[in-house]
Amino acid sequence: MEEERKKESEFRIKIDRDSDSYEEFVDQIRTSIEAKDQAGLKSMLDGAHPADIVTLFKDLEREEELYLFRLLSHEDQAYSLIKMEEETLESFLEELSVDEISKTLGHIETDETTYLLSYLPSAKRELVLANLSKADSFEIRSQLGFREYSAGRLMSKDFATVSITDNVRKGIINVRKKAKEIEDIYQIYVTDEDGVLEGFIPLKDLFLTPINTKIAKITNFSIIAFHYDVDQEEVANTFKKYDLVSAAVTDDLGRIIGRITVDDVLEIVEEEASEDILLMAGVSEDERLSTPILQSVKRRIIWLNVNLLTAFVSSTVVAFFEDTISQIVVLATLMPIVAGLGGNAGTQSVTVVIRNIATGDLSFSNWWDAVRKEFTIGVLNGLALGTVTFTMIYLVKGNLTLGLVVGTAMLVNMMVASLVGSLVPILLKSMKIDPAIASSIFVTATTDVCGFFFFLGLATVFAKYLV
Which residues cross the membrane (predicted)? Predict the structure, then answer.
């Protein structure tokens, strides 16, 4: 075991992209592939974790990747596929034969198998399923039938159960048999004679309890379980809230049909966070570094066009005050200050509200608290920044009225920004639209339009004091 850890550690040092030896190591790999030196390659990959091999793939050509992949054991092949980025995985699976894919699936749990098969074209998927045993094929087909991004699609069908009418001795025997098929066992699920979930037993408690004790006496009946159609984001939030490491998934009758473990949830959290960050910037959640340029352009251009339309609206507001600007040229240099700070304040409110929606802290029952808080923050920030702006403009320009106009416009726009920034995500959520998709665009457009309108409107009213 110590020797294996040492080899794995040494390999990670070799594939550290910041090390001076990385390029040399990649060149050695390429040279050995070109020479078809299988023994040399296996020696260089000795101790490598599948995830580290996938890291190495990023600097190899596809043919080199495939050659290296085919030298791995079927188990390492399976875990290498799981660790690949989605777009890389899709194209990689196209290169593998039905037989190659089928041989890897026997070494992973059903949720991981379902994940891999979801990236195959339907025709090739059917061929792979036909290559599996009838029992495995039936289980995977049934799991693929669950809604995408649901607990049913996320769960693994590999779990250990004991009957509530058994004693500990029989329970241990059942668990030992099941342990051969399951990667990790965190909890033993307790069911009645119809398979309905009753509770759970921590693995430690089962093995430390006298063997003649009834299972019912050591069962924890306060169990958290998910219906198979629950959204994966709700699953992740529940795991976080109750510090779960594993949870059961049940059918419509309350019978256990699978389990979700904490490692699955960590992947969801990363996916959801990345998706929200990208969507807030108007970028598709599917976009990766490897995404083709034209495909990236196609995905981004829609929201850029929306931004262009809102920019035209802002320019129309400015054009309405052309006469005022032509008379008082200094206004043109001060306009971006009001609009820019309003946009930043709105983005802050949007980010906070969306995060609280995502974590479940903000719902329709307490939305007014969030709006009230953000509006209050907007008023206080507006007063502070308005005062600073007024002081700076008065000291630089020597015009008291100009300072008051800009400071007042700043205060009003900060209030609007905080109000809109908190309300827009909540309204989008109520309309069943992901708040991350368009909130920032609407907020920025509003603060630009209102900022220009308030500033130039006040300047027009007090024009005779500004000249």
Answer: 301-321, 327-354, 375-396, 402-428, 440-463
Residue 156 resides in a domain: no
Structure tokens at 69: 């992949």
Report the CATH number at residue 299: 1.10.357.20
**Residue carrying structure tokens 């300072």:** 403
Please report whether residue 4 resides in a domain.
Answer: no
One domain for residues 321 and 442: yes
Q: How far apart are the C-alpha atoms of 378 and 434, rounded to whole Å?
A: 24
pLDDT one-digit tens code per residue, 252-305: 999 999 999 888 888 777 666 656 555 555 555 555 555 567 766 676 677 677
Q: What whole-number distance in Å separates Cα of residue 423 and Cα of residue 403?
A: 30
The answer to whether residues 355 and 364 touch, using CB atoms and an 8 Å cutoff, is no
| Dist. CA 366–CA 382, nearest whole Å | 25
- DSSP letters, 52-69, are HHHHHHTTS-HHHHHHHH
Q: Does residue 250 sit within a domain?
A: yes
pLDDT tens for each residue of 211-238: 999 999 999 999 999 999 999 888 988 8
How is the chain split among helix, strand and coil, in percent rounded to 5?
70, 10, 25
Residue 47 domain boundaries: 21-149
Structural domain count of the chain: 3
pTM beyond cutoff 0.85: no
